[in-house]
Amino acid sequence: MTGLFISFEGTEGGGKSTQIQLLAKRLKELGRTVRLLREPGGTPIGEEIRHTLKHSEANHAMTAEAELLLMNASRAQLVREVIRPALAAGEIVLCDRFYDSTTAYQGYGRQLDLDSVRRVIDFAVGPTRPHLTLLLQVPVAVSEERRRIRNAQAGAGTAAEPQRDRMEEADRAFFERVEAGFQIIAAAEPQRVHAVDATRSVTEVSDNIWELVARLVTR
Ligand code: TMP
């Protein structure tokens, strides 16, 4: 059985983690082995890099260039340590973000040179590319509101990652550029990237995702 690599993308608050869990459940019911991963992170080295990028006390001064390279250092490790072996073993890899996040956040959001961003990504991933990318879209205002609620819960100590998150300290214009970047990516690669309207109910979104994935796994 051949492996399948699916990435989930989109701005914060689109319900990616919920949808990944629901898709994993459906795939396991078909008897498939499913590997759930997140970026940055997914390996011991990647999780340390994630901490540096998001939560470390020393990360205030991080440049956009360092951010780009750290995201891709985590990715280079994940691809070789986990994704390639998992695909070779016929597993289904579901990744919460992959290189489209770099194009959207570091390319369009931080406004780094897009060609340089592409070259760094190519070096990090080589030929390992998602077969399908699901772009969960919510308007920037909805994403902002969901982030606000999550941060309020984090303040109350109920969230999984209760620390300050440097990536969320950017202004609204940054997140608008990120969202526009994702739309450009989806338009450029319609075969691979499918936009999913994530303002609908959890069940509707999950059924929509299943329509897109089922044809790849029940071949
Ligand atoms: P999340 O796991 O809560 O989505 O946090 C990851 C953060 O890192 C999120 O703000 C998006 C950002 N990010 C990038 O800026 N570039 C990348 O390449 C990746 C994978 C994530």
Provide an overview of this structure.
With 219 residues, the chain is an alpha/beta fold. The chain is 56% helix and 12% strand. The protein is built from 8 helices and 5 strands. The protein has a 5-stranded parallel sheet, with helices on both faces. Bound molecules: thymidine-5'-phosphate (TMP). Thymidine-5'-phosphate (TMP) binds next to helix 4.
CATH architectural arrangement: 3-Layer(aba) Sandwich
What's the CATH superfamily, by name? P-loop containing nucleotide triphosphate hydrolases
Q: Low-confidence stretches at least 5 residues in length (pLDDT < 50)?
A: none
Question: Numbering strands along the chain, what is their spatial order in the largest sheet?
Answer: 2-3-1-4-5
Largest sheet: 5 strands, parallel
Distance between the terminal alpha carbons, to the nearest Å?
A: 11 Å
CATH fold-level topology: Rossmann fold
Shape: globular
How many distinct beta strands? 5
Beta-strand percentage range: 5-15%
The arrangement of helices and strands along the chain is: EHEHHEHHEHHEH
Domain tally: 1
Indicate the radius of gyration in whole angstroms. 17 Å
* Residue share in helix: 55-70%
Structural class: alpha/beta
Number of helices: 8
Bound ligands: thymidine-5'-phosphate
CATH top level label:
Alpha Beta
Mean pLDDT: 93
